[in-house]
Amino acid sequence: MNDSTLMQSIRKLAQPWGSDESYDSLIAEAKSASYVLLGEASHGTSEFYSVRAGLTKRLIAEEGFRFIAVEGDWPSCYTLNRYIKGYPDAADQAREALSDYTRWPSWMWANREILELAEWLRSYNEERPESEKVGFYGIDMYSLWESMDEILKYLTSKGSPDLEAAMHAFECFEPYGREGQSYGISASLYGEGCEEEVVSLLSKLQDEWKQAHPADRENALSAELNAMTVQGAESYYRTMIRHDSDSWNIRDRHMVAALEKLMEFHGEGARVVVWEHNTHIGDARATDMAQDQMVNVGQLLREKYGSTVYAVGFGTYRGTVIAGRAWGAPAEEMQVPPALKNSWEELLHRDGAEDKLLLFSQEETVLDQKVIGHRAIGVVYHPERERGNYVPSILSKRYNAFIYLDHTHALSPVQTGAAFTS
């Protein structure tokens, strides 16, 4: 396919983005899905968060979507969930609830964009019965020790007979000083893991929420999700030392399992809006991830639930972003350089330097055969090494729709004790 044919295809598909009409057209496409997956090309771009928030509010208020699931830790997101639902012992203010986001990279969820969404959700929930309140949950699995802490708090508060078993299970992790990598090295290389202990604990907590008192039902669910997180994180850290696809696949399979548990909890007909990076929500089979035998949330959900899954990818040509130079390094506002020539982002910019929406129908288009680089910025970012940030992708097969934002800006972190530099 020559450049002229490719640009003609883009021009035919692209429509202006940003007006009420453009939101209407995307909502009309996505509203019948059970899983609406909203991506992002970075974890530190304001417009990705604000556009997702705008779409999410409409899906909740107009279409009855029941909860939001994000690429975040269960414990800290559950603190925000309690504020959003107005629980008696919850934080008094959204900013206070966000103070639980202390694990790096805290800016992913402790930011002004999420603060505004949290206030909207709190207001939306105020006049609704408990069974109709919209929730906010984290489905990632990095919070190994934080989840163990929450399980012990819950079992202690209930005077549960399972408390002793939980304390025994968690004693296995004590030698590793709350360091996942230290545990992974020991478990992978020396066979000194804690898998049996956490599997046994999860079996004790599984589905307890089904028999719990209505007022404690969600807290019982939280205990189970924390146990699932401990099990998933134990497996993740045990395999990550090998640097192969297993640890990635464990993480994304865990996120799908957590989503399914939340769907079960919210009952028949429940629908969810998922916020995760493009690398998780865009179908891995339409990228070079498939060559490395990697799967992701988007692929797994599509394989199981078909057309009830609707994925929206995001991209930008240039701007600024919040990221770190290394894992655990201070957050910085960095420049995002103009996209590489002949990447999806550069082609969309070449078509015109304005925001665009592409809706990919079920009909075959010439774009369905075109593998082109698509920018992905992580929490660790080096703009000077830009060429390594592109994932070869068939855009129209990776997503159902794509939102292109030509010039974007760094999001605004809310201070939670984590370092930040400008």
From TrEMBL:
InterPro entries: Emycin_Estase, Hydrolase/PRTase-associated, UCP036794_erythomycin. This is Protein-L-isoaspartate O-methyltransferase. The lineage of its organism: Bacteria, Bacillati, Bacillota, Bacilli, Bacillales.
